[in-house]
Amino acid sequence: MVTLDAINLKIAKLQKQADMLSQKQASVGLTKIRDLMHKHGLSVADIETFVGKKRGRKPGAKAANGVAKAPRASVHHVAPKYADPKTGATWTGRGRAPLWIRDVKDRSKFLIEGATAAAAPKAAAKTTGAKRGPKPGFKRAAAKSAAATKTGVAKRGRKAATSAAAPAPAKKTRAPRKPRAVAEQAAAAPAAAA
Predict the structure, then answer these.
(1) CA-based Rg of the chain, rounded to a whole angstrom?
(2) Where are the domains of the chain?
């Protein structure tokens, strides 16, 4: 019966053989490269400049200074508002509710302490924004709707309100049309009598 130690020894021997083969192949490749460089009179600096020109982007001023690119400013990360005490999973309160909070009637049990304190100033700022007054054009729209409700035509609009104030003209009625043959006979009858 083969033991675990015997298998580990075989693995170690095979790993050593693999390392030796990769070193041998690398040395063969390096000797070919060195011979080609010597044949064409190239140095390592020549190869580095050639590779730098052909591949990749040119390093910009920021990359040269080591300054990383700033993340996009339009991305707004929202702090989590709810946390599951069992798993530690969090939810911001936006979008579809996760399974652990979806069917819960009172979600206040899962509120994170820091989230409620941070939400209070935002809620206060929203309520104080209403003190600025109505938007431009609000007074005119309110006056129009008040006038429309006084006349009893609030939802019909301006055209309907003007047509309700003036009586509609009576519809003209036409005499029923006679068949063509009857009209021809009536026209021929006076001509025949004359």
Answers:
(1) 45
(2) 4-55, 82-123
